[in-house]
Amino acid sequence: MTPSTTTGSAKASERIDVRKTYKLYIGGAFPRSESGYSYEVTDSRGRFLANAARASRKDARDAVVAARKAFGGWAGRTAYNRGQILYRVAEVMEDRRPQFVDAVRKAEGLTAARAETTLDRAIDRLVWYAGWTDKIAQVVGGANPVAGPYFNLSSPEPTGVVAVLAPERSSLLGLVSVLAPVITTGNTAVLVTSESRPLPAVTLAEVLATSDVPGGVVNILTGGYAGPGPWLASHMDVNAIDLTGAAGDHEAATAMEAAAAENLKRVLRAPDAEPDWTDDPGLGRMTAFLETKTVWHPKGV
Question: pTM for the whole thing?
Answer without folding.
Answer: 0.91
